[in-house]
Amino acid sequence: MLSTEVILVNTPPAYGEQKWIDNIQYMLDGNLEFDSIRVINDVQLGGVYDKIRVFSAGREDKQYLYLDLDLVIKGNISHLLRKDFTLLHAWWRDPFHTPLNSSIMSWQGDYSHIYDKFMEDPDYYMVKYHKGIDEFIFKEIQYNTYDKVCDSY
Question: H or E segment at 145?
Answer without folding.
Answer: strand 144-145
